[in-house]
Sequence to fold (666 residues):
Amino acid sequence: MLLKTPYLLFIGDAVDPLAAKVAQGIKDWRPEFCVGQFRQEGCKADMGIPELSIEEAVAAGAKTLVVGVANRGGVISEGWISVFEQALRAGMDIASGLHNLLRDEPRLVKLAKEHGCELIDVRIPQVDYPIANGITRRGKRCLAVGTDCSVGKMYTAIAMEKSMREKGRKATFKATGQTGILITGDGVPLDAVIADFMAGSIEYLTPDNDDDHWDLIEGQGSLFHPSYSGVTLALVHGGAPDALILCHEPTREHMRGLPGYSLPSLKQLQRTALELAQVVNPDCKVVGVSINTSQLDDEAAIALLEQVESEMGLPTIDPFRQGADRLADALAE
Amino acid sequence: MLLKTPYLLFIGDAVDPLAAKVAQGIKDWRPEFCVGQFRQEGCKADMGIPELSIEEAVAAGAKTLVVGVANRGGVISEGWISVFEQALRAGMDIASGLHNLLRDEPRLVKLAKEHGCELIDVRIPQVDYPIANGITRRGKRCLAVGTDCSVGKMYTAIAMEKSMREKGRKATFKATGQTGILITGDGVPLDAVIADFMAGSIEYLTPDNDDDHWDLIEGQGSLFHPSYSGVTLALVHGGAPDALILCHEPTREHMRGLPGYSLPSLKQLQRTALELAQVVNPDCKVVGVSINTSQLDDEAAIALLEQVESEMGLPTIDPFRQGADRLADALAE
Fold:
């Protein structure tokens, strides 16, 4: 594990609940990692867990202060720094996915060294990954691929993990982005890996496992998104998935950040992703569809899910509205 | 330009001609960049150009000492370092594509600073590349894509440049690997770029140009090579090619470095590469095939080229045996 658990969640002076979505994700998906939260004056987010001082958190066993809030204006404020200093003096590590790196704050670097603590910027790779060797590994792997970026791939994979674990099946969500890494305490920040080592980093992340164990790999980008498609293909080949889940957001008018680029159809994604995945794993199958219907009302959402299910001939769900049980069951088959 | 021209080619104590293949490439494709060569005792390679001391090279206008030879044993030898020191004292930059970086040699770093010279490790990106924006650029682009790594993609693109320039057409070979960068003095070391910026680095490399100008982009890896396919897809989407050339080595028994992975057929490569390229450039076409027949005798080579041409319905050549005129003509059509 990259991060020591359990965590004290740092919510700081979050301007609204959305600013604390990383903390919310940790609390939703790994409540057992959270001994409490640390909030500052004016904080507009609340995880509903015990409010602890640094000293109380350490007494409760907290090993890492996790920055669960986005900062404003591209600087880490003095108000935050002083809390981070307290945490280091009390012997806690600090983990952050902020653009501004902890390692670029000399006061924190000095204190961490003095107290034998770690500053973990999860955006930065912490491992020298190998070049991919393409060798077949034991165990099963499922990858979420999207018609676009930010369509719910992480949510889908982690919701599938939850469903499978509730049913007593062996499953592990494998994070490939900073939010997922902070939630689970481990993973590969794939978008920051050097080109030649991308696929190898995913092989490293998803090694041999029990024959009946599923790695549920967080997707990134899209094979159809010109800015990030290479990252996605490295996931498809490094992950060597046995199963693909297609992810889609039905109200997106163009590819994220790229006016003029329309989204592929789910059929196009199915065909292209499967053909490329089968280069490494000839037995790969597309087993289900996950639709992010957050922009639709209940009636429209249900109608769309039924329509897509009928068109694609695959279990089709919104994991936020319905949970991911049907996708988990599709893997089991 | 990343490198200042003209060059003095450093051949050192090359154990055989193959060890000096970078120098040979520069001499073959950019003879006008080469004022001379620097060879040491026991050198088994010879570019057939003037043998110059550092002083003579500077007098002849040389701006950069280019390391055109591969080293042995993973260290830069004392014999080489002392020549590099002379070059820096004489005011020359040094450029190298070696795994061992010039910047990791403290004596060279100190001298370069004192004499205002640059140490240019072309394996390391020298630019903060942008994230790709997918916006259509003026001018034309051609990309060589392969059934595998190391099948002649660089050779094909640079031979096409030569043919087009001889016919008075506007063409520029665009390097994406260290050998190509040393040959042309500029380019992107794509395999060392951070994942998120791969496609953007290729947009940066191939900006707007005259409507009748062709960038001939050096390919990397293969869409079907699990270790590097992500790098290749970033080239396909960042390069936004109008034309693709399919490259193949017919005697390869499995994907390079990956026993158990067979090569795709040229038809498979054509279909997959074109479908992915058309995401960014719907007008993209596959215009020709380049076969590396170096492992075949004349008769077998010609028979194979004719057979592939008939099967694919595309101009099919070996640019080493025949030059690249027919591919250059295919672009013009």
